[in-house]
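Page 42, continued from yesterday. The earlier attempt failed because a stray header line got pasted into the input along with the sequence. Redoing it now with the clean sequence only.
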Amino acid sequence: MSHYLVTGGAGFIGSNLVKKLIAQGHKVRVFDNYSGGKKPERLFPEVEYIEGDIRNLADLKKVMIGIDGVFHTAAIPRMPYSVEQPLETNEVNVTGTLQVLLAARDAGVKRVVYSASSSAYGDQPALPYQETMKTRPMSPYGLQKYIGEEYCRLFFELYGLQTVSLRYFNVYGPLMDPEGAYALVIGRFLKQKMAGEPMTVCGDGEYYRDYTHVTDVAEANILAMTTEGIGKGEVINIGNHDPHSVNELVKLIGGDFVNVPARAGDPRKTDADNTLAKNLLNWQPQIALAEGVEMLKKEWNIA
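This time it went through. Structure tokens are written below.
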């Protein structure tokens, strides 16, 4: 049994990770400012919850005491918001990440697993997206998450703190907030379906995304924390390598839809090459989109 700290552990991805950790018998401490609210379904009685902000180094140093490994999921993950508020999001996503690494280093934590983002890629000229590609972030958020990766690499090279960065692709699944940053089109469609409204499809609907179930993401985090021989600042894609169009998603959910104008700047397709995750972590996605959507429809009582 290990003692883990999960920053942002009351959020969507963090709470799914916490649930998996406690099921495996680990001791878990969560550090969260509850910017996404205190949703009861995301809180577990076995977990120690400490309210605080990753921008506060003194608080971080306190919560690191006795911790074996840190899962750093805390962030402001909204790309449009980062365009509107680049300074605030930089303070959380860059300065906050730097302070998590500093506190972990000073506390003698063995390894930090960092929640990175596929938004670091931007719009690439070739598919699938490979970790060796030059990053081309198209938003402050994408740039900020990439800077976090580089800090993780430097902290291993300069200070010997083991780090692994996981680039997530379009995460969805249980405990998802339909209003939240990670809800993406799936959350919006399900909310519209529940309200008896038609699903709003942007443009021609031929926009492809590599939807990745949060249970698979949580498993990737645990493997990144526990696998021997890594921790040298690696950056690893976590995606299904099985992109689907918005039109396909509409058919899986079922119901009426209307087409609305496309959003400027949206890449036509994202696709994760997950070879490195398979080779380094022995990670394999288990939940295909059709299965994941059916699970969500049952959770939300959608016929």
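Notes: The longest strand covers residues 111-117.
Reminder to self: strip header lines before submitting.
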